[in-house]
């Protein structure tokens, strides 16, 4: 049977699944009408979200920074997706054009408790810090294994400007995987000389849901791909015949009713494992968000069920077994006055959309904020403004409000932020004109947990004839999780691998293979 007559079932509606559907149609010759995406939520996009309105408030759980050199599979995907406003222009071209005009050049990357802008260009390394970094880079992953970052570095390293910037740019904790940190060092070597300005960052015109997910969805719908919302996949059956393994049945629940899709000999299954935004909970001005610990949605529950079926399907508890190590909290401000943004512009010297990330290094919560280009949401009025921020240490008592971030209401988080900025004189006006939506995410950095070989399954497990795994918890050698690139690259590996597509998957960018880039990074590290 030709590819145009085969069916594909895709579990999950995140960017990995959407990308897989695009590759099936664009490169695999699938008829879009033979592809079904099964999504538990009423909306697709996964972690790439952005919603709300000016009255109730806008919210995005994350703020992702893209990059030209490293995100080659993402650009491959987006170069064939038209924008919603101009069918003759691709989403990739729209993003690149936008960033030629709105260049990131942070002038206030680190700010101390007295509102002083620190000299972040001074990374603060000692000879011992450099030696410890060199040792980590020299060790093979098999030797590093499941050890933590703080097992490789002395206390001084964690006090450097470099660590303050690196950890908050990428959301590392000291107990995160040392193996993953090594991959990040190698994957983003080109960022060493510009980590203090974030000039390598590329932003979307609006939030990633409006700028990426909606155009991809529009393309898929136009090509006949169906998305079945409100569908929780509960299990997948497999059969084995010698070295061959096949997915044979997908079980689901919809409106409280159990159902199943039977997979014929020529059908395929692409299954997302886990979710970094699983069990996210939202607060508001007057309420702190709940911390959900009991796996209420189906993301990790499904993976746990699958992992019981085969030893090479991964070990989900390595990532979802310690919420207190994997959680942190973000917040989105919706401002009906330009006062706070004007003051931030005056303080930093950066217009909205050009400052990247500002971290308050003495904050007990280790709070950071991003002021995006305005508008940041589709339909956002000209007189409404937004800001995004997050805290890494949500269980520590704040500097000003006297309670942990995890117990703080939206307005209390805003109060803490205003005090860090030293704008107490404007506090009441800022609070009166601002809506705050905080979000607690129990598993947001779970993919950074220390891991051993076998904890993450291969995208296409050995012997698989018709199924692949997608998402942030699969194993893709040399690439780094917590990036859109990882999800898209995995989708490409899954589709190309199962269908035997000869198109070359874009290679992983190795900065150390480029002498000029490598020399620039080395010079910066030795300063």
Q: Brief overview, please?
A:
The protein has 527 residues and is of the alpha/beta class.
Structure description:
- Helices cover 29% and strands 18% of the residues.
- It is an alpha/beta fold and 527 residues long.
- The chain has 3 domains: 3-52 and 68-95 and 205-278 and 292-317 and 451-499, FAD/NAD(P)-binding domain (3-Layer(bba) Sandwich), CATH 3.50.50; 111-199, no CATH class; 327-441, 2-Layer Sandwich (D-Amino Acid Oxidase, Chain A, domain 2).
- A 7-stranded mixed β-sheet has the order 6-15-16-17-14-18-13, with helices on both faces. A 5-stranded parallel β-sheet has the order 8-2-1-12-19, covered by helices on one side. Strands 9-10-11 form a 3-stranded antiparallel β-sheet.
- Strand 15 and strand 16 form a beta hairpin.
- Helix 1 packs parallel to helix 8, helix 1 packs parallel to helix 15 (484-499) and helix 2 (72-78) packs across helix 15 (484-499).
- The radius of gyration is 23 Å and the shape is globular.
